[in-house]
Amino acid sequence: MRRFSAEYLARTRAGMWADSRAALADLALDSRDRIVDVGCGTGELSGVLREESEAEVVGVDADTDLLAVAREELGGGDDESDDEFGGADSPDFSPVAGDATRLPLRDDCADLVVCQALLVNLPDPTPALREFARVSSDLVAAVEPNNAEVGVDSTVDREVTLESQVREAYLAGVETDVALGETVARRFRETGLSDVRTRTYYHEKRVEPPYDEHHVESARQKATGEGLDRHETELRRQLTSSEFDALRREWREMGREVVGQMADGDYRRVEVVPFEVTVGRVGG
Ligand SMILES: C[S@@+](CC[C@H](N)C(=O)[O-])C[C@H]1O[C@@H](n2cnc3c(N)ncnc32)[C@H](O)[C@@H]1O
């Protein structure tokens, strides 16, 4: 299983859903009683679900370290996996340790099962979607990035070309389909979900003065090469050893330029990641 740090999730989700939540309209959040957020991580989407609904939200994840952060951020008792959620005194966020392909939850116990950036990390999303349909009595939804369509602009010119080079090699070297995007709708239909709809949310990440802690950390990780090293396995599948070393050298130089421009208050960067929000109905 691909692992994520709480720091990475906080940094890459910062500002997500803050500008507009229109793309979540088909989830009909205001009419939900019980929602399961699968692969909830630190609860970035769970928090939005709680804000937009009166529902009890259960966050399921296989990584108990991330669940502990979600519990801290959103409240909730100990791991609730032994209890069925929905009890009269259950908190409105319940963290549950579990695998997306074998959810530790009863049939039809929720009226929405949703995930954000989970399917792109699974070797095969279909078994998880079948589980979503088993656990939900009404809607199933997925918010999945289309990583092949990410757009970047930067005051450091070579950041744009290097990122595009790295993205291309990463997409070719990664073992799961991280650019699922529009194909999620087809997978929903193949799972037997009906009335399938898709809307796109463009998550725009802007770096400009005054820089916050996430911006500074991201620049630091560029300059040290840490950000690139996170994808080393995938990149090395596509690049020779000397190509990878050369790319890493150039990447770190680029990172130092970013840090330099930041020190002068001149650095600006915009990244737009399209997330496809797909919703389908169980049965019908
Ligand atoms: C990219 S993170 C997304 C986290 C969160 N949904 C968000 O958008 O910030 C993917 C999450 O899926 C979890 N995950 C990956 N494979 C899983 C599996 N088979 N079952 C449950 N969780 C899984 C990871 O631990 C991680 O928290």
Automatic annotation (TrEMBL):
Give the keywords, sorted: Methyltransferase, Transferase
**Chain intervals with Basic and acidic residues compositional bias:** 210-220
List, alphabetically, the Gene3D superfamilies matched: Vaccinia Virus protein VP39
Q: Which GO terms describe its biological process?
A: methylation
Cite the Methyltransferase type domain residue spans from the record.
Answer: 36-135
- MF annotations from Gene Ontology: methyltransferase activity
Disordered: annotated segments:
75-96, 210-230
Which SUPFAM superfamilies does the protein's record reference?
S-adenosyl-L-methionine-dependent methyltransferases (SSF53335)
| Superkingdom | Archaea
Q: What is its EC number?
A: 2.1.1.-
Q: Is this entry keyworded Transferase?
A: yes
| Chain intervals with Acidic residues compositional bias | 75-86
What InterPro entries does the record point to? Methyltransf_11 (IPR013216), SAM-dependent_MTases_sf (IPR029063)
Q: What is this protein called?
A: Class I SAM-dependent methyltransferase
**Which CDD domains does the entry link to?**
AdoMet_MTases
Q: Name one Pfam family in it.
A: Methyltransf_11
